Structures are given as C-alpha cells and as structure tokens.
Amino acid sequence: MFLDSTLTEKYTSNVTPDPTLPAAEDPPETRSTAGMTSKVVKGSLWTLAGQIAPLGVSLFATPFVIRLLGADGYGVLILIGLIPGYLGSADFGMGVASTKFGSEAYSRGRGDEEATVVRTAAFIAICSAFPIALAIFLFSFSIVSLLNVPEHLLSEASLAMKLASVTFLIGILNNIFNTPQLSRLRMDLNTLVNSGFRILGITATPVVLYYGGGIIGAVSVLLAASVLTLFGHLYISGRLLPELLGMTIDRRLVRPLMKFGGALVGAGFAAMIVANLEKGILPRMVSVEALAYYSVAFTLASMTTMFSVAMIQSLIPAFSQLQGDEKREQLENLYSRGIRINLIVLVPSLVLLSIVAKPFFTIWAGPDFGRESITPFYILLIGLVFNIPAYLPYAAIMASGRTDIFAKLYFAELVPYLILVGFLTWKFGTNGAAAAWSIRIGIDAFFLFGLAKRLIGVTIPRRQLLAFAGCSIVMIFPFIINLALPELTSVITGLTLLCFLTYVILIRNFVLLVEERYWILNRLRRLLGS
Fold it and tell me: Which end of the chain has less neighbouring CB within 10 Å, N or C?
C-alpha cells in the first residue's frame, strides 16, 4: 500500500479545471478563517436540509414499498438496513478523525498532508471494517436464520445480506472521502452528493419493486446509490483537493489517527448503552405499552435536536481550524455565538412543540398516546434545555482531540444511571424513565461545559446568558396557559404569536451584538431581493 509518490503525479497531472466547482487554490501558509460563523450557519442549514429532504421522500415512498414487498418482505429489508447503524463504529472512528486531522492540515495550507490524512484514514477504516463485512458476507445465511426470517425468504434475504455487506464498506469510504468538502465547510456540495443519490435510491426502489425486483432488487438499488455517492465524493473532493487522487499513505499518521478513533469508538459504545438503558428497563419493570408511550414522546422531543446535530458536522472542522493561541479569539467568538444561536432557536421551538404535542399524539398515534405520552414528553423537554447547547462544548472537545473524555464520562455514569433509571422507573413508571433521562442529560451538559472551559478555555460570558434568560421569560406564559387549558384554542395560538414577536424584539435589543444584527439584516435583504 505504500506506493511511490510518482503515482500521485500520474493521477493528478491529468486533472482539468471544472468551472462548476471552486478552483483549487495555491496553498498559503495558513488559510483565512474569517467569516467562520457565517460558514457554520450556512453549512448547518445545508446539512439540516440534507436530513429533511430524504426523510420527506421516504415518507412518500415507504407505503409503496410496504405494499409491494408485503409485511414480511419489508421487515427483512428493515433488518438488513440496520447493519450500518449497529456497525457504525466499525470504521474505528476514521470518519470523524479524517475530518479533524484533514481540517487542521487544510488550515495550514498543506494540501498534500490533508490528502495523506484522508487516504490513511480510509486505509485504517477498511482494515478495521473488512473482517466484519467479510464475516457478514460468508455467514449471511446463518445470520438471517438467527434473525427469525421466514423460511420462504431465507435464500433471498441471505443474498441481500451479502450485498448489504458491500454497501456497508462503501458507506464507510463515503464518510471519509468527503473530508475535503467538510474541511472547506462546503456542506452544500456534501449535502448534494449524499442526499441527492440517497433520494435517487429511495425513489428508484418502488420502481424496481414494481417490476419484480423483490428484496434483492431493493438492496441492489441501495448498493448502486452508495457506489454513485462514492464516485460523487471522489470527483468533487478530487477537484477541491487534486492531491487526493494518489495511492500513498503515511505510517506516521496511523498512531494519532487510531488513538483518536479508538477513544471515539469506546465513547460511542458507552454512549449507546447509556442512551438506551431506560428503553430496555421500561418493558421489564412496567410494560411494553409503557415503552411505546415513551418512545413516541422521545421521538417528537428529539426533533428539536436536528439543527444542533446538523451544526456538529460544520463545527468539528471549524473548531479544528481554529486550534492555536493565535486564533483563540475567533474560537471563543464562534463558540459563544454557536451557543446563543442554539438557545435562541431552542426556546420558541420547545414552546411550540409543547403546545402542539397533545393534539399531535392524539391524531398521529391515537387517544391513548395523547393521554399517556404527554407528561413524559414535557419532562424530556426539560432535559433538552441542557442537552441542545451542550452540542457546542461536545464539538469543541472533539476538535481538540480529547475523545477519551467522552469514553471516561459515559462509562463513569453507566452504573449510577442504571441505579437512577431503575429506581425512578420502578417508582414512577414512564414519567420516571423520562426524568432519569433528563437528569442524566443535565449532568452531562454540566460536565461538558466545565471540561470545555478547563481543557480548551472557552466559555460564554455570564452577562449574555443572563440577558438571554431575561428575554426568554416572556415565552413561559403560553406554555403555562397551555398546561391549564384542556385543548389547543385560538387564545393559546394568539398569545403564542404575541409572545414570540415580543421575544424576537427582546432578543434583538438585548442579546444580539451590533454586528450580528447587521448580518441578519443583510441576509434578510438578500432573501427579499432588495
């Protein structure tokens, strides 16, 4: 694998400029990091759109897939689709590691180093994931048999599982070869490639099924979409970073990449256990119905994190480029603004969800869910007040390279949380499970903010937090009145709108900085075309 550098020249000498993509720049000593907040916000919105668009298309296509495959066939397709989710750590954390180390190299203007990071990370990821993919391929029939797949679908499911093992490997490469796009915060390009081919695959699946493709046809469509996504990333990343199209890797990078990724895998394993404890305890201590009520509440509550999750993909490369004392002020400004942006969006979002939750549960899932899911939902919202802004210190710590912190934190809280969720669930049922989750999330946030301050030196000024808290009080009134009234009324709707307008005015006058007001005003003028 350690090939001569002449191969790099061979692959890069024939690259011709593409006018539709940004031209590759001559590497300066350091890249400009001006306007980082604008890039992060824009990138986060692109990432959010890339999450929502496929979801909308899937909601439309799924009923056709279910009818064409039948309940058994669709169940098998779902089982096969779970492979990437459950084996996401098989890349040994190289997706995030490539983004962090690649972004640092990009900020120094070292295109050759950035390209070597990507290729080395891909090499490590394949070495880590290939044995798992090979085992799935070789023992696919045994796996589907253990999963209780109906006998008449065993052969088809086995072949589909083999195809899925290949898709699994290609998906890992997709999460690494998009690094040049992430390093440059070109989330628009990354989203167009990822979501574009994913939407193409989702829409093509019912067509293939209509013409008799079956489970194998559906999985083949997903494989084709993954292959096209890989070609898309190689093409665009190759234009942004011509040095990428080589074959060499660097032995010296293996150790730091594996150290970073190994700690991330450990943290991910611990987080997966901790995050699902209450879901495992509820059916044992209460009932399966209680788990259903809790899961519906949790699903709606987690929708509020979509923007913050989208920000993570932009924040990690942005924070990685701002490491070093000379960029300390920019790092602190981005950190502070990121927290305020999340908090400003968070408050009205939580109030709106709290108002529409009960009628939504009742209409979407039935009267029983409207009655049983609403209280745990309100309790979960309390935890989200702490959880959503904590994405900023999480990203800052990640970008600093201290992924070991997360593994230590999650493993340390595993036993105390098991005791807490067990006691509260036994005592209060579904509401107790929700309370345990909110308490854990609050403690997590406390530690993450403290660790970010101690390890990186970033914090948000207390004056800004107090100003935001004062402005947010106005949004409490529609929430309280909604609790007092049995159903959604025009009074609540009107009061919510009035309080929201007041909230916007207060935020503008007392929370936003002068330059931030001008930035928003300029963006609004551009949108309105004036």
Answer: C
Written as one letter, the residue type at 337 is R
pLDDT number for residue 178: 93
**Tokens for 375?**
């209280």
The DSSP secondary-structure symbol of 324 reads S
Are 273 and 142 within 8 A, CB to CB?
Answer: no
Q: Does residue 307 have a pLDDT over 70?
A: yes
State the Cα–Cα distance between residues 137 and 131, nearest whole angstrom.
10
Domain that holds residue 64: 25-255
Of these ranges, 158-162, 329-333, 338-342, 352-356, the one predicted with the greatest mean pLDDT is: 158-162
pLDDT-derived band at 131 (thresholds 50, 70, 90) equals very high
Interval 338-361 mean pLDDT: 86
Residue ranges in 211-305 assigned as alpha helix (H): 214-240, 251-275, 277-285, 288-302
Size (the chain), residues: 530
Domain assignment present for residue 392? The answer is no
**Domain-embedded: residue 131:** yes
How would you label 158-187 residue by residue, b for 16+ Cβ within 10 Å and e otherwise?
Answer: bbbbbbbbbbbbbbbbbbbbbbbbbbbbbb
Full DSSP string of 86-142: HTGGGGTTHHHHHHHHHHHHHHTT-HHHHHHHHHHHHHHHHHHHHHHHHHHHHTHHH
Q: Which amino acid is at 211?
A: Y
Q: How many domains does the chain have?
A: 1
Helix/strand/coil (H, E, C) string of 438-486?
HHHHHHHHHHHHHHHHHHCCCCCCHHHHHHHHHHHHHHHHHHHHHHHCC
Sequence-distant (≥ 6) Cβ neighbours of residue 485 within 8 angstroms: 491, 492
Nearest to 105 by CA among 252, 289, 292: 252
- Position 470 in a domain: no
pLDDT per residue over 63-121, tens digit each? Answer: 888 888 887 788 788 778 776 666 767 888 899 999 999 999 998 888 899 999 999 99
Half-sphere exposure of 153 (CA within 13 A, CB side): 23
Which pLDDT band holds residue 32 (cuts at 50, 70, 90)? low
